[in-house]
Amino acid sequence: MKKTILIALTLSAFIFACKEDSKEDIKPTDNSGCDTTFVPSYASKVQPILNDFCVGCHSSNNATAGIALDNYNSSKNNSTKLIPAITHPTGLPNNKKMPPGGKLKECDIVTIQRWVNSGFPE
Ligand code: HEC
């Protein structure tokens, strides 16, 4: 009987140890579970998101609401409007929530926030 308990204890210790290990294998993340190991430069990380979800309505040729998001300078200069537009803070009117009728993936939002907070790496 004692032996069985010992074996059970040893086994569960093992299982626990494995779980702990696999946690450490995962890349460091912030609270929302997004990969935050990379430098979020405009060219490598931000522009692809804006191209996919925003530039259709916010290009230099067709700057809806005066907002062009197809180049570095304009995206940077509009960042104070851009962040609320994608994070949807309480009280933001629905017509200001972007993209219209939807929301970016949480990790894409985190990437754009990190870009702004890191001083807009180009
Ligand atoms: C289908 C077209 C469309 C797409 C796609 C779109 N927008 Fe907009 N956007 C609009 C329109 C229309 C307005 C004007 C809303 C208003 O003020 O009534 C607007 C306004 C804005 C504004 C100004 C908000 C303010 O405070 O006045 C920002 C910033 C913005 N969009 C960012 C984005 C971002 C970032 C994306 C991509 C995640 C995006 N938009 C995608 C149509 C679009």
Outline the fold blueprint.
Blueprint: H1 2-25, H2 42-53, H3 72-77, H4 79-87, H5 106-117
Helix pairs in contact: 2-5, 4-5
The site of heme C (HEC) has 20 residues, from helix 4.
Describe this entry's structure for a reader.
By secondary structure, the chain is an all-alpha fold. It has a domain of 76 residues. It is built from five helices and no strands. Helix 2 crosses helix 5 and helix 4 runs antiparallel to helix 5. The longest helix is centred in the N-terminal third of the chain and has 24 residues. The mean pLDDT is 86. The chain binds heme C (HEC).
Keywords:
122 residues, mainly alpha, 5 helices, binds heme C
Question: How big a fraction of the residues is strand?
Answer: under 5%
Bound molecules: heme C
**Major sheet attributes:** none
Give the helices and strands as they follow along the chain: HHHHH
Q: Give average pLDDT, whole number.
A: 86
Low-confidence stretches: none
Gross morphology is globular
Number of continuous helical runs = 5
In helices, the fraction of residues equals 40-55%
Based on helices, strands and strand pairing, what is the structural class?
mainly alpha
Taking Cα atoms only, what radius of gyration do you get, to the nearest Å? Answer: 22 Å
Distance between the termini: 66 Å
User: What's the count of strands?
Assistant: 0
Describe the structure in brief.
The chain is built from 5 helices and no strands. With 122 residues, it is mainly alpha-helical. Residues 53-54, 56-58, 64-65, 67, 69, 78, 81-82, 85-86, 95-96, 98-100, 104 line the site of heme C.
